[in-house]
Amino acid sequence: xxxxxxxxxxxxxxxxxxxxxxxxxxxxxxxxxxxxxxxxxxxxxxxxxxxxxxxxxxxxxxxxxxxxxxxxxxxxxxxxxxxxxxxxxxxxxxxxxxxxxxxxxxxxxxxxxxxxxxxxxxxxxxxxxxxxxxxxxxxxxxxxxxxxxxxxxxxxxxxxxxxxxxxxxxxxxxxxxxxxxxxxxxxxxxxxxxxxxxxxxxxxxxxxxxxxxxxxxxxxxxxxxxxxxxxxxxxxxxxxxxxxxxxxxxxxxxxxxxxxxxxxxxxxxxxxxxxxxxxxxxxxxxxxxxxxxxxxxxxxxxxxxxxxxxxxxxxxxxxxxxxxxxxxxxxxxxxxxxxxxxxxxxxxxxxxxxxxxxxxxxxxxxxxxxxxxxxxxxxxxxxxxxxxxxxxxxxxxxxxxxxxxxxxxxxxxxxxxxxxxxxxxxxxxxxxxxxxxxxxxxxxxxxxxxxxxxxxxxxxxxxxxxxxxxxxxxxxxxxxxxxxxxxxxxxxxxxxxxxxxxxxxxxxxxxxxxxxxxxxxxxxxxxxxxxxxxxxxxxxxxxxxxxxx
Length: 549
Ligand SMILES: Cc1cc2nc3c(=O)[nH]c(=O)nc-3n(C[C@H](O)[C@H](O)[C@H](O)COP(=O)(O)O)c2cc1C
Ligand SMILES: Nc1ncnc2c1ncn2[C@@H]1O[C@H](COP(=O)(O)OP(=O)(O)OP(=O)(O)O)[C@@H](O)[C@H]1O
Ligand SMILES: [Mg+2]
Description:
binds magnesium ion; FMN
């Protein structure tokens, strides 16, 4: 009785002095209740922070996420659920969502009682020698702060889960997976584990949260997060594959980074993954010759495919000018164009062509069919080619809102749906909408040459400071007109081809009868001049018709 009175007194005090809105939140509490003070404080603190902030989006996300937790706790008993916690930012968000969701669940059952533990959900942590020490210590410190019952597993995920499921009656595991994570593709808030994995339900309460939502939550609730995020790390894997995100690099220093919450484009949160250079402090990886990956590309051969999407081009109503423009521009940055194709405004036609070209070429450029019209199916076709779905992209939506204002109808802007888990946005000050890149497919929204010129120039500027596109030694070419017919020149040209295998030697004519134009293309001007000189020996060259650098 003494306890009850004491707690009741605490509650009243909180309501009166510190939490003026609290009476709206915990309507079912009465003076027969005993809640350990710590549990009260943390759960109310999160809930209060969210409800008092003026971020309606965050409030909706929070409400939905805690609802998923409550739903799971209705479907499964507390012994049947586990929380997969690894000290990362997403699982830190999930921890607090679970705490709040659990509390609301108990409250809904009117069974908040004196036995309420701080956090009774079994917590599993796959510990690895390759984890950052900061992640390890944050995980254990957090467990101590919030009273988590942590089971440390030293096996890989699959074997660890197999062993766990044999031993414990676990049927559902909460994960901090979010749309945009490579592993989120195809997942829902409740998704059974994949074939080949032990059977359990993956519960993803924050699946639809964006990078920005995560930071809005952590900062609004003022909860602790791992210190690495304040040192420019934006997504944390192992010590071997994670560096600070170079997009957060402080401009006058290559080893000082801004905090993770300042990353403007959440899609680039994994830009620090899979790169761990030795001593360059987050710069591009350096090979044994001291060349960066971009340098080492310089003399290699990269191929591009270009896909135009347009019924009108195929009907012969309009002429495609963007394809030839891109071919010239790609040659200027040393790329070979493998194929230039035109497809109908049809999801399957786009998907089929993208699917083929993305595996044959290093980069695919696609234009046409991008926008709000019924015929604008390019992005859906790309998603289909990669076997992913379209998912709302809030950053992209914001850009669109800037340019089209409130003209878009409905709750969701269909144009802001982008292929899930494979999309990067590339920003440039001169572009009102960023460039969209889905793995090795770059989507160009230009509809005429001058728009394309602007997008291309931005692409090149971005390529200079990032790995958007490798800039190679440019191709140079020269053309000469020959005073023989194609029949007469054929043998000589094929011999020349054998002598200069490093050059592309092509031939075309402007009319069936008459002179022939020979074109030489390569990366070494001196070699091109030698080949032309060889033709001169035969006194065949009528005139030099020009060159392209
Ligand atoms: C509890 C748990 C359950 C998982 N279940 C699956 C699964 O069903 N299917 C799967 O392909 N991967 C599963 N994974 C592996 C993850 O998809 C992913 O590989 C892991 O979280 C590493 O992500 P990262 O590369 O972003 O660090 C699971 C991982 C954990 C911790
Ligand atoms: N070693 C691990 N132990 C337990 N759970 C893990 C582990 N690695 C991943 N998970 C689970 O998978 C989820 C997704 O991992 P992911 O690395 O994408 O997110 P995070 O670590 O929470 O944040 P970040 O993206 O910043 O690294 C985690 O939130 C967690 O639920
Ligand atoms: Mg992580």
